[in-house]
């Protein structure tokens, strides 16, 4: 087997290219790990936020269930049809306001979850753009 002699300039070129490739791979690996950490953190924030949202929804459902049972108890003890109509109307007026407030509260919680989840991603993206510029 014969050995072909490689010119020194070509060898230096290949070694330099190899080093640049290795450095690029290391930077890519570091960026991938940073992105993974960012996604894990965002997922954790999202999970906690969704848990809080679900707890609020459960509390609202519990309050609504208790409210309907209170109405049913009052209707069962009503002395006349007009009294039961008044109880129903009062319940509906009050419950409409309660449901509106619950919906507003749940919407605010959902918006908070989204903004808190996206915030670290937006900040990291802005930082990446700043570094690239």
List the helices and strands and how they pair.
Elements: H1 8-76, H2 81-132
Strand content: under 5%
- The tally of structural domains comes to 1
Radius of gyration, whole Å: 32 Å
- Judged by helices, strands and strand pairing, the structural class is mainly alpha
Descriptive labels:
133 residues; mainly alpha; 2 helices
Can you tell me about this structure?
By secondary structure, this protein is mostly helical. It has one domain (32-132). It is built from 2 helices and no strands. It has helices at residues 8-76, 81-132. Helix 1 (8-76) runs antiparallel to helix 2 (81-132). It is rod-shaped. The two termini are 52 Å apart. The mean pLDDT is 90.
What is the compact description of this entry?
The chain is an all-alpha fold and 133 residues long. The protein contains two helices and no strands. The chain has one domain.
């Amino acid at each position: 087997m014969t050995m072909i002699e490689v010119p020194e300039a070509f060898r230096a070129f290949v070694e330099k290219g190899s080093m640049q490739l290795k450095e690029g791979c290391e930077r890519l690996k570091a960026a991938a790990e940073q992105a993974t950490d960012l996604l894990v953190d965002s997922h954790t924030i999202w999970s906690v936020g969704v848990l809080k949202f679900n707890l609020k929804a459960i509390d609202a459902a519990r309050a609504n269930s208790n409210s309907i049972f209170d109405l049913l108890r009052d209707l069962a003890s009503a002395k006349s049809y007009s009294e039961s109509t008044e109880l129903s109307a009062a319940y509906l007026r009050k419950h409409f306001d309660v449901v509106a407030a619950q919906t507003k509260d749940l919407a605010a919680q959902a918006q908070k979850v989204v903004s808190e989840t996206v915030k670290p991603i937006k900040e990291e993206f802005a930082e990446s753009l700043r570094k690239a510029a």
